[in-house]
From TrEMBL:
Protein name, per record: Multidrug ABC transporter substrate-binding protein
Transmembrane segments: 21-42, 277-308, 329-362, 374-397
GO cellular component: plasma membrane
One term of GO molecular function: transmembrane transporter activity
Family membership noted in the UniProt record: Belongs to the ABC-4 integral membrane protein family.
Domain named MacB-like periplasmic core: residues: 21-247
Amino acid sequence: MTLQDSITTALKGLQATKSRSALTVLGIVIGISAIILMMALGSGAESLILNQIGGLGAETIVIRPGKEPSGPSDFGSTLFANSLKNRDVEALSRKENAPHIVEVMPTLVVPGSVSYEGETYQPSIIGGSVDFFSEAFQVYVQDGVTFDDADIRQNANVAVIGAKVKEELFGLSDALGQNIAIKNRKFRVVGVFPKKGQVGFFNFDELVIVPYTTAQLYLLGIDYYHEIIVKAESPGVVPRTVNDIEATLRETHNIADPKDDDFFVVTQQALVEQVQVIIGALTLFLSSVVAIALVVGGIGVMNIMLVSVTERTREIGLRKALGATQKDILLQFLLEAIILTGIGGVIGITIGGVLAFGASLIVQATFSSDWTFVFPISAVVLGVGVSTAVGFVFGIYPARQASKKSPIEALRYE
């Protein structure tokens, strides 16, 4: 009996019990759909985050205070660390310490709201440099001007606001020259960003940038920075610049042993690798949980196939009496299980892809993000491979039971 004959016989056997076959693959369809959905959403999230990271440029280096986190529980201590001071900014700005650094910008995050004549809005308030943000993200002030280095040195009370902030506080009125209040301190609006939405890590429409010196002295009352962003001459000199940064900060912090570092340096490549590892691990974990549905579906396939073997005992006896071998019977029932789960895998891939596409549209509409639909080929390969493997693993036992039946006893079966 040829393989083609075995496949034809298996398909006829499945067609004879269409309703049962459909119910049998339901668990496979659900499991494969969920895995495809998880992989597609994981790939979409990874693509979105990596695009945002890439918005800063490969030559950007971020210095953060505290010990480098080795797990989720360490991030809290990093947020409240106070090891990055003005002396570090000055030391990094000197060419003899780090010759390949072209710009250094301390940044601070200021919690709170902004108000103007009774109108209040809660944007993202950043202490930093508008010029640095503009160059890094290619978003430039549309109305008015930016504040310059002189304003930063003089702790000026000036601010550049986003389009959404301007709309919420001033409506159709002109915002330039008006004074907004942040933590009961007046700031003169000198510039307004165009409507840009999410660019990189920031929604520029909901952003307020003030000089980092002003934020540090008057809004937060602290003598340290939350982060220092450094820009190197080119991506090629980043590794050397990282070494220069670490050597300079260890000198300013009087650290002899690198194990005692109270800061850590993050490059864009390192961030990319961290994101890929985290999302990959999360996707794998969720897919492993979903795989339970496949096991349940596989057990369902095995049970139904055992019932089918019992119901078709006389058919098995007749085929053996006509010359079919144990191998022929084994192959027929095994092919039935594999074809059944294979069809379930294809249906699951289709449904999972449709659900992932719908989810991407919902995320785009709800969060106004640049989330893109990603359907990895590896998900298709995995879906087909897993469903076929489930059919083989859980179909082999019923097939063996069918092949072992004695033709005489089978023909006598009532």
